[in-house]
Amino acid sequence: MRIALIHALKHSIAPIEAAFAQAWPEARLMNLLDDSLSADLARDGALSDAMTDRFLALGDYAAATGADGILFTCSAFGPCIEAVAQAHAPIPVLKPNEAMIEQAVTMGKRIGLLSTFPPTLASMPPEFPASVEVVPKLAEGALAALDRGDRATHDRLIAEASKDLRGCDVVALAQFSIAATAPLVAETTGRPVVTTPDSAVQKLMKLLAAKA
C-alpha cells in the first residue's frame, strides 16, 4: 500500500514515520511538505478559498502518484482536507486528528486539547461531537523553541501547559509534532493521553484492509 503523507510543518514528518514503522512497516510512504501553508495560515488568521485550492492541488498530485490513501498531518486545516476527501472518494483521505477524536470521545466527556499552534485551537474543537466538553490549551512558545532546535524547552513548555488539564478525563495532543511528549504529559497530568499519529495509522490500516 502506498500512503501519501502531506505536511504543513516539517516537525510532523518524523512522528508519523515512527508510527508507521511501529504499526505498519510494510506501507510505502511518500512525503509532501509545504511549510508555507502553516506560515500563511498564521499570517492570515483564517482559512480561505485560495488555501482550499492549494490543498486540492496537493491531493491531486498525491492521487496521481498512485496513492492508496492520503493522510494530512496538519491539524489546523480541517475544511480544506474535507474538500480533498470529497474530490478523491473512495480513496481514504484522513484529517490528522479524526481518528484520535474518535478514540478520545470513548474515554471521557471532558477532553483536554493541547496544542503549540494557535490556529489548531480555533479549527479543531468543532470537530469534536457536541456531547463532550473540549478544554483547549496552548503551550505558548513551544513551537518557536522547536523551530530553534531546542526540543528540551519545547517539551518543558508542553508539560507545564498540561498542568491546566489535570481536571480532564483524557488529554488529546493536537499535533503530530508533539506526539513524542505523550509520556511526559501523562506523568504530569496523571491522565490518559491520546496522540494523532498512532490513531491515524490504525484507522488507515482498517480502512485499507476493508477496501482490499
Strand and helix layout:
Layout: E1 2-7, H1 13-23, E2 28-33, H2 36-44, H3 49-64, E3 69-72, H4 78-88, E4 93-94, H5 98-104, E5 110-115, H6 118-123, E6 133-138, H7 142-147, H8 151-162, E7 170-173, H9 182-189, E8 193-195, H10 196-211
Parallel strand pairs: 1-2, 1-3, 3-4, 5-6, 5-7, 7-8
Notable characteristics:
212 residues; 4-stranded parallel sheet; alpha/beta; 8 strands; globular; 10 helices
Into which percent range does the helicity of residues fall? 40-55%
Termini distance?
10 Å
Contiguous runs where pLDDT drops below 50 for at least 5 residues: none
- Succession of helices and strands: EHEHHEHEHEHEHHEHEH
- Strand-pairing-aware structural class: alpha/beta
Question: Care to count the β-strands?
Answer: 8
**Radius of gyration, CA atoms, in whole angstroms:** 16 Å
- Please state roughly what percent of the residues sit in beta strands, choosing from under 5%, 5-15%, 15-25%, 25-35%, 35-45% or over 45%: 15-25%
Number of helices, where a helix is a run of at least 4 consecutive DSSP H or I residues: 10
User: Average pLDDT across residues?
Assistant: 95
Tell me the major beta sheet: 4 strands, parallel
Shape: globular
What order do the strands of the largest sheet run in, or round the barrel if closed?
A: 2-1-3-4
